[in-house]
TrEMBL record, chain A:
Keywords: Cell membrane, Membrane, Protein transport, Translocation, Transmembrane, Transmembrane helix, Transport. GO terms for biological process: protein transport. Involved in protein export. The function of the beta subunit is unknown, but it may be involved in stabilization of the trimeric complex. This is Preprotein translocase subunit SecG. HAMAP family: SecG. Residues 1-31 are cytoplasmic. It comes from Halopenitus persicus. Pfam families: Sec61_beta (PF03911). It is a single-pass membrane protein. The gene is secG. Its main location: membrane. Component of the protein translocase complex. Heterotrimer consisting of alpha (SecY), beta (SecG) and gamma (SecE) subunits. Can form oligomers of the heterotrimer. Belongs to the SEC61-beta family.
Automatic annotation (TrEMBL), chain B:
The keyword Protein transport applies. Residues 39-72 form the Translocon Sec61/SecY plug domain. The gene is secY. This is Protein translocase subunit SecY. It is a multi-pass membrane protein. PANTHER family: SECY/SEC61-ALPHA FAMILY MEMBER. One of its GO terms (biological process) is intracellular protein transmembrane transport. The keyword Transmembrane applies. It is found in: Cell membrane; Endomembrane system; Membrane. The central subunit of the protein translocation channel SecYEG. Consists of two halves formed by TMs 1-5 and 6-10. These two domains form a lateral gate at the front which open onto the bilayer between TMs 2 and 7, and are clamped together by SecE at the back. The channel is closed by both a pore ring composed of hydrophobic SecY resides and a short helix (helix 2A) on the extracellular side of the membrane which forms a plug. The plug probably moves laterally to allow the channel to open. The ring and the pore may move independently. The chain crosses the membrane at residues 30-53, 74-97, 117-137, 149-172, 184-204, 211-232, 244-261, 282-300, 360-385, 423-442. Gene3D superfamilies: SecY subunit domain (1.10.3370.10). It comes from Halopenitus persicus. One of its GO terms (cellular component) is plasma membrane.
Amino acid sequence: MSSGQNSGGLMSSAGLVRYFDSEGRDAIRIDPKTVIAFAVLFGVLVQIVSLTI
Amino acid sequence: MSWKDAAEPVLTRMPTVRRPEGHVPFKRKLAWTAAILMVYFFLTNINPFGLMAGQSSDFFGQFRSILAGEHGSLLQVGIGPIVTASIVLQLLGGANLLGLDTNDPRDQVLYQGLQKLLVIIVTALTAAPMVFTGNFLPVDTTVASALGVSTFAVQLIIFAQVFVGGVLILFMDEIVSKWGVGSGVGLFIIAAVSQQIVGGFFSWSAVGQVGFFAGWYGILFGDLTIGSVFTADGLQSLLFEPGNLLALFTTVFIFVVVVYAESVRVEIPLSHARVKGARGRFPVKLIYASVLPMILVRALQANVQFLGQILNRTWQGMPAWLGVYGDQGQPVSGFFYYVNPIQQPQQWMWFLGETAAEPWMIAIRIAIDLTFMIVGGAIFAIFWVETTGMGPEATAQQIQNSGMQIPGFRRNPQVVEKVMERYIPQVTVIGGALVGLLAVMANMLGTVGGVSGTGLLLAVSITYKLYEEIAEEQLMEMHPMMRQMFGE
């Protein structure tokens, strides 16, 4: 049933940065929600500081 | 001891975004992608604290549309650092200087860590000259006096913000790659280019720029006079400003050519070794390496131009053969003029009196740009195919692992590799050169909204890929069995 083009790995050209399945065991893991929350808070904070001075 | 052992403690500890456990439903993937897109647009609208906004020219200039981000915002650096770091990795990997085997789990971890570290270093290297040299991001002196600190201290604050913005882009890309659809880099390029195209079509004078439709409204209702279309002047205003018919033609042409070229392919027949009647095809597409390598060539040119900009602003005694700059900070002669790619029709159409350059100077510039894009496009396409595991050797291994073989040939990776070698390198080189030629052509004829040819090519081809990926995702949602087949 499986055809050659779906045998995985061929779709890896989507991005300039490549992510593999294996990751270092000691790596610091960040939750994606944390990144988004940080980005929004960072933007809001910079805007507030800019407006107050 | 190799460099791997020395660098391992650092590279394996680089912070990464957590991977989803198990399958992420398609709707959830779309939600993550949309959330990242919103955060991206939000951050492009926020000026760094301490910056004198709207007072400076863009460091990236015409390259902005492919490097995304927004001048004078927290996302000042855009995806520039990611692209530059990728160039370094492509060149090192393509020349096999790294000694990393991307099939080995340990080396994969090292590769990812190295990639991340490089992007972070390049972010700092890109942000520093923007802030500290040549007034690209001028300091608001009232902020300095209100805080009672020196201008340099405020520059440091701006640098920190731009740097954090650059690192955020890297992590946002990682979220989209792991949790969303497509890649963050692709998403940001589409966002930047689409914004410009929509602006080019629908903008009107009240929002700053007269767009295509507003221009034609003016022409049809007599607010803009274009003269008779049978005179040279009238024809010129129809084709260029304000008629923009040539730009419309180029934009549509690029769309059509890219979508068509995506479907041009050489199909290598495959059959299953044990299951009789199970057949498949391995497609070698004309644009096999996708259009992404093109961004690497453009980024190389962009980096040369940045160097010119910095030299021009900081080195008073710059010799004329190196570069002479005009009022708006654009090179008008010298080395940096000739290596500056043509970005709009006004830069070469000497017969319209739009440029002061001599025809022979323009000819040299076009020749250099064409050579650079076609040869560079082909070379980077080859590197791209090698480093992303789409080369003859890697694909032969994949076909072998999936239990398929080419009918009429022995079932052996080396044999399959031989057959693949007949097609993949040739198709890659032709595809890369073709895309380079298209990009230069689109730039010379101009596009709606002033997006560069490369930007338009990238946007169309990334959107097409995204469409394919979404279609595949939906197929998997409908039939959970499909997931196994797609190897998830």
